[in-house]
Specification:
With 119 residues, the chain is α+β, with helices and mostly antiparallel strands. Helices cover 25% and strands 21% of the residues. Strand 2 and strand 3 form a beta hairpin. It starts with 9 loop residues before the first helix and ends in a 9-residue tail after the last strand.
Length: 119
């Protein structure tokens, strides 16, 4: 069921403390941790503690928590000192867009030039 922890979800296991992660921030509704396969000098994932398969599903079901994820992405960028040089917040949605964990999450990338259009 949407919103409930999923036994087979890596990010639900991180939220539950069952799988280790390098956590950089945690709030009542979100967890932010370093990506294990970073694509930039700063690459942090911000996830909601509730399970929804992607950002659009999260926003439709729980818009306040979706806003929390975006707010925390900005806080992470500030704490990582990448605001002045620019950063990107990405929600991959679906396999064709590169989503590999089907739990909503925002990638916060910065610390190097980020070309446009991406990949």
């Amino acid at each position: 069921m949407a919103g409930e922890p999923q036994a087979d979800c890596l990010f639900c296991k991180i939220v539950a403390g069952e799988v280790p992660a390098t956590v950089v921030r945690e709030t009542e509704t979100t967890v932010a941790f370093r990506d294990i396969n970073p694509q930039a000098p700063t690459h942090v994932l911000v996830i909601p503690k509730v399970h929804h398969p992607d950002g659009a599903s999260l926003a439709a079901a729980e818009p306040q928590i979706a806003a929390d994820v975006l707010r925390e992405a900005g806080v992470v960028a500030a704490e990582e000192k990448i605001v002045a040089t620019g950063y990107r917040v990405i929600f991959n949605t679906g396999r064709g867009a590169g989503q590999t964990v089907f739990h909503a999450h925002a990638h916060v990338l910065g610390g190097r030039g980020l070309n446009w259009p991406p990949g």
